[in-house]
Amino acid sequence: MTEQAAPPRAELTRYDMPVSADDLRARVRYHAIMLVFATSVLALAAVLQVPDSEHVSLRGIALPGSCFFRWLTGHPCAGCGLTRCFVSLAHGRVADAWAFHPLGLVLFALFAAQAPFRGMQIHRLLKGKPEWQMEWMKPVGWVLIVGFLAMWLWRLAY
What we know:
Blueprint: H1 21-47, E1 57-58, E2 61-62, H2 68-73, H3 82-90, H4 94-100, H5 103-126, H6 137-157
Antiparallel strand pairs: 1-2
Helix pairs in contact: 1-3, 1-5, 3-4, 3-5
């Protein structure tokens, strides 16, 4: 009788392996925290107003500026304008948002995508399925970082 070779085994990644109950709770908690954070930022943007090009207000009361770098140096930081951009986008004013911070449009879209993405991750984990892996998003993060730095240098130069 001839022996047959065993079929090759597929390599398991850490995402395909069974997880302990503690690991499962930790992963669900992580996605829930990210979901709450992203939706809270978007909800806050919807409640705030941009009465002029320099301020954000809540029910007509101007809020103090929140940029420590600008307060310290008098120059804008890489993220200056993001709050006004998010608030403008939440109210449908895309042109205003673009003027405050062009990369804020991409960041706002990423925040908005968190609700369905994190919800599905939690659902998959609770059903015993592996999480979706978004390895292709790592370069997007680096492109955003470089974009923020380039925008910051541009603003400092002009």
